[in-house]
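[SOLVED] Need 3D model of a two-part complex

Original post:
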Amino acid sequence: MKLLSLALLSATLWAQPALRFAELRDLKLAGGQTLPLCRVGYRTYGTLNAERSNAILFPTWFGGRSENLDGFIGPGKMVDSSRFFVITVDALGNGVSCSPSQSTGEFPAITIGDMVASQYRLATETLKLPRLHAVMGISMGGMQTYEWITAHPEFVKLAIPIVGSPKLTMADLLLWQAELGTIEAVQKAGGDPRSAMPAVRAMHEFALHTPHWLTTNRPASSFSEFMAKQQADSQSGISPLDYAAQLRAMMAHDITRRFQGSFESAGAAVRARVLTIVATEDHMVNPEPALTLAASAGWPVVKLTGICGHQAPGCEAGTLNTRIPEFLNQ
Amino acid sequence: MKLLSLALLSATLWAQPALRFAELRDLKLAGGQTLPLCRVGYRTYGTLNAERSNAILFPTWFGGRSENLDGFIGPGKMVDSSRFFVITVDALGNGVSCSPSQSTGEFPAITIGDMVASQYRLATETLKLPRLHAVMGISMGGMQTYEWITAHPEFVKLAIPIVGSPKLTMADLLLWQAELGTIEAVQKAGGDPRSAMPAVRAMHEFALHTPHWLTTNRPASSFSEFMAKQQADSQSGISPLDYAAQLRAMMAHDITRRFQGSFESAGAAVRARVLTIVATEDHMVNPEPALTLAASAGWPVVKLTGICGHQAPGCEAGTLNTRIPEFLNQ
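Solution:
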């Protein structure tokens, strides 16, 4: 979603609600370690109603920041902030919330579950919310959505995982390992991990779209310009340490783990009503596990079928801007 | 085609014709440099007829060796060696023919055109052939086939590029740059380029199949075993220097360059009858340029439409073992 988000960002930065931080003390991590202090970045839109029952939590995608979600929120968009109190949250490891790049010492491994644990404390301790009307997210935000509805089933009324996944497949693991292994190989050689990022970005761009979309929309002559931009961005963009930490979190993601690997048991434990949204031609987050879980739990599915691949939520925004508000207004 | 070729190799190694070498003196390269001596590996099957008119040249794919092609040759297979004199050739830079890994000093950059130039000298000087009945190849072998019919139009009667391409697209360039950039980043950091290969192989495996094929045929639980094997193979497998040299050759490949970028002019210059074979779901070598050229030149096309992606020639061997012999028997 990177390209889309950057476009939205430049178009809407002026209108961004202020970035706030929740100061979480002693955040326990799934790996057993505890972060003495973890600051979690978030932004809020709209007004919490008297019953405190209209809050929607919207965490970031892989490498994304809360500011990147601004373009999805507003009247006529995916989430109507005139009806709902919307909280966009910076996922752990994104460079805004507590992340390896901010740590002087060794930063412990984080999981998708840790991201959700930090968001649960933000919702309950900082914002004093009794429950969430909805949790929704795109890509890694969808992974966090799946974690939310299995880790805190009673706390979420509605859930919308968008091109997310409850569990990774061989295809996902090969892609993320290709990116992670490149950063790690350069680190192991004693090099600056930023020098790995242009190759990592080439791989990411390859899988972000379908080859058909790339061939149709990007002339081969644009390749050298693209790589020159990645070279420049590798110095100023997201820290490779943060990028690697979120890659490891995604690679370890599997909501069926606490259900003996059973999609049926995982689905049966969910209390939220779930609208599953997948891109059938998604080459970055494989749609099969989301479709398997939805089928076993009897959840409705919206299939985005265009050639945009993982960027379908941007390319087919019209569908989402209809189906998602319908689902949220219950 | 790696997995397929390895399977064939183990099954048929005992039957391999001997590896021979053509000693080419002063091989002029497209880059302007000259190799004083380049040994080109090849194997032959069947008998050259009295008219010397039944020779088929079959160069290797990216990273492949002539021994890997053995399984495609024989009665009832793609090429019937009881009718044809078949020459399988090791492409420059594959570690058998002259390659960076065999060079003590700096080895010059090689192109797909240089591979074909070495094969033309093998055919004319070493084997004294007046003409080739056919040139055929898979993947990078298909790229060499396109180069053959435009560089030596009068020398080739029939041509069969299989999941090859006359020119790379943005999708191809991103994939190969991701692999090449990983090797180069580790080299730049002063590391052993072999340590880059596990990440490169993960990337390669991801694009070799469709995500759907991977998800359907490989459980996520097989991921760690796959990566452990890549770790081991990185020490014994193809030299990263050779791998990078062939990547650079593919990235520079464009048969339309000598025709002012025109597919029409390139197609019009071809004298051979061409059977274009593509995999519509190929994520490694994009089929669009091959389809565009075939359409503009009016060449017949065989579309492999399964979910195997770039490995369709192995998965849909039945189709090729019918259509290719039909085409060769003219």
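Edit: The two ends of chain B are 28 Å apart (CA to CA).
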